[in-house]
Amino acid sequence: MRSWFLGTVCVLVLAASAAALGNAPPAADAPRELAAPLAESLYFAPAERRLFRRAELGVLDNDDLFEAALAAAGACDRDARDKYLRRFGSWCDALRDQCARLDDRQKAQAVFLFLHHEILHGKYDFDCSRVTDAVDRGDYNCISSTVLYNALAHAVGLSVRGAERPGHVLSVVVVDGQRLAIETTCREWFDVLADPQRLARFVPPTGAPATPDQPRTLRDVDAAGLVAIVYYNEGVDALQQERYAESIAANFKAWRLDPKSAAARGNLLAGVNNWSLDLAAEGRFAEAMSVLRAGSGLAPEHRNLAVSIVAIYQRWIESLLRDGRYGQALAALDDGAAMLSGDPYFADAASEVYRRWAADLAGEGRMDEVAALLAEARQRFPDRPELAQAEAEVLHASQTRFAE
Q: Which of 147, 214, 245, 347 shows the greatest Cβ crowding within 10 Å of its Cβ?
């Protein structure tokens, strides 16, 4: 599993920090819709639509896990999916024969040995999150190996689920009423469990240290949550490659499957943040604000998006003022104020736009326009001393010119 913070690196100093982006509290429920332009790459193949319908009904379980993980990995073509399902069915049949007379702990070990001897005959690969790659190549990481282990363990009648912490996921099997942690990335795991000294020193390939009580310290994730992690990892990859719309779509799918996932939500919002900042760096300010407006709809309480909104507006307004586009600057600030009602920046900036516009008009001797503009400004912002001072200066300049 990818560490969530890998996807929150911001491209401008004006952006919020990665840690702050990740610290936003998870939402109680994932959103039902993703607005444009965030939905640019959002598409549900028929196999995915079935997966999400079952998840939304609360009936997606370990019976669906392998097929759902195939859909998340992009194996949505019927022929390709059927090929993998036939292989999976043959493994389940072989395991059922092996486990027919075993107790639950023996079954848990038999499934583990089968997984590593018959399927995962390759190597640990940090990037191998898709079960299709694990099946085809025999390589694996913690999420692909956990999905495969859980699906096979369920097929032989074990009670099994996933458990996660940032950057890592593992299996948990209930044996004699006790929760048994299964580190699916460690080929010698049952030997490690039998040796307290080895267990105390064990560190899985992810670098997350193991402890005997780790099932009680991790967050449980069901079948939908495991599939969500597959989508989340796809989102991290896309974000690192600055494929923002794809990253947002993948993390949105992860969030819908697991609404309590702070990682998926944090990475989705990091994608929104970084995309908007990249657009702003290219001078595409209106597009940047469109991205942030849609992102704010997903997380209106997210302070760091608000920070980015103000930072981008600062650059946008300065750009407009340099070109003398005062009316456009005021219109943009009105939109920003509607998005972030109560933020003092927008009133301050609008007042400054009026002042600078009036100064330019006065320099051209267009005093009637100056008077009308400042009257409008005073009506909108009656308590702004800088506007009163600007009006007094204009009046003085007008009187001086008349006297001359």
A: 147
Q: Which residues lie closer than 8 Å to 117 by C-beta, 6 or more apart?
A: none
CATH assignment of the domain containing 145: 3.10.620
At 398 the pLDDT is 59
Task: Please report the pLDDT score of residue 379 as a whole number.
Answer: 87
Query: Where do runs of H (alpha helix) occur along 189-284?
Result: 189-193, 196-201, 214-217, 223-240, 244-257, 262-281
| Residue 378 contacts residue 391 (beta carbons within 8 Å) | yes
Specify the pLDDT at position 204: 66
pTM of this structure: 0.84
Q: Residue 359: what pLDDT?
A: 86
Q: Residue 342 has what pLDDT?
A: 82
Asked whether residue 98 is assigned to any structural domain, the reply reads yes
Alpha carbon distance 135, 81 (integer Å): 12
Q: Mean pLDDT in the chain?
A: 86
**Backbone Cα Rg of the chain:** 29
Q: Which of 303, 301, 237 is nearest to 271 (CA)?
A: 237
How far is the C-alpha of 256 from the C-alpha of 28, rounded, in Å? 11
Q: Give residue 73's domain range.
A: 62-221
Residue at which a domain ends, from 199, 221, 243: 221
